[in-house]
Amino acid sequence: MKSFNLFDRFIYVLIIVNVIAMVLESHLSLRTAYGPYFYAFEFTSILIFSAEYIYRIRSAYKLDGKKGIFSYVFSLFGVIDLISILPFYLSQFIKLDGRFLRILRLFRLTRIFKLGRNSNSLKVFTKSLSGVKAELIFTLFLSILTILFSASAIYYLENEAQPEKFSSITESIWWATVSLATVGYGDVYPITVGGKLFATLISLVGIGVVAIPTGVISASFVEEIRIEKEKKAKKKAKNKDKK
User: Fold this and answer.
1) Domains present along the chain, CATH in parentheses
2) Would you call 172 exposed, middle or buried from its count of C-beta atoms within 10 A (0-12, 13-18, 19+)?
3) Mind listing the pLDDT tens digit for each residue in 29-71?
């Protein structure tokens, strides 16, 4: 158990160093001067992470057979473990567009999520999300429906006045999404009276659309924390009774 803890700590340190290396490599001067070293470190890290992934699959199989493998591979951290190593292999064996490869390299950041594998707080948060999965799916559907409705309405209100900016409902989705998210970049905006009135209404609706999932997740998280505290209190009470 002690050696396993040491291995976990080593993996955690390696993850942090990987993220630091990725940040440093983004600087052209450092990438030009130390490119081969960055690649060598990346290659070595991938081998270690790949070995860890295989080890965890093997441990899952020993624990619960094929069911254990399925549970691990399709779990949150199983997916993160795979995503953190897969882009490297794809870039080595498949000819892909360079820009696409740069996007794939961003998946290296998922390694930082592996640090939370044994975090009780993260487990509570994940459990709270699972508990309100149906509500979150409904709010996602509601958000998509609202965006489509907003994009359609603003298209018909603004198309004649601004045909280059609101050329279609598809083009209008950008404005609808930004407005409902209450971001408001200001690159596209209505100029007609009808469009302005509709935009005012949508901005107010957007506050609610953003607030609903936030409130649902917060309430579920608080509830899970309460349950965890009750469990700990009961466990302490039982230990006192035994003594």
Assistant:
1) 2-117 (1.20.120.350), 133-242 (1.10.287.70)
2) buried
3) 998 999 999 999 989 998 998 998 999 899 999 988 889 999 9
